[in-house]
Here is the input.
Amino acid sequence: MSETVITALITLTAGAVGAVCGVIGAVKSARIAQKSQMKQAVVTEFMHARVDAYSLFFEQWSNYICANYNPALLPQLIAAIEKASMLTTPSTTSMLADFRQKLFLYAYSEKRSSELVQQLNDATMNLRLALQYDLLRYYAPDIAELPEDAKLPNEIGRPRCK
Here is the structure.
């Protein structure tokens, strides 16, 4: 082979390797950007859902208080507690459970003593602080760590694991 052909082959090979590296780099860069955008969207939606659930809880709590602790309003308040508990951190979830217990003790007691009122007020303040703290904490829910059989199939019908 002549020197010109060898030089052309080397140039062609270098160009092909450069093009392949460029394509691989562009694809990886696009995937990283896509993953970052997806994570940002998940965090944004999660925080909106959290704010909505916590707002609903405080709205139902206010309605219950303003109605002079009317037991007829307890179902809406309990539903709001359950909705909020799906979005709270584990420590706040235990405070919600404590609040719910104190709420039931107060709501269904025959004699509402000042001690029960104080316990409910303390649980309310602790819960309020915990919910506010939850809103200030930033973390992204990570669905990638779920076991494969716990994930839902996508639109195109990913087969379910058995």
Remarks:
- DSSP finds four helices and no strands in the chain.
- Helices lie at 3-66, 74-85, 90-107, 114-136.
- The chain has a mean pLDDT of 84.
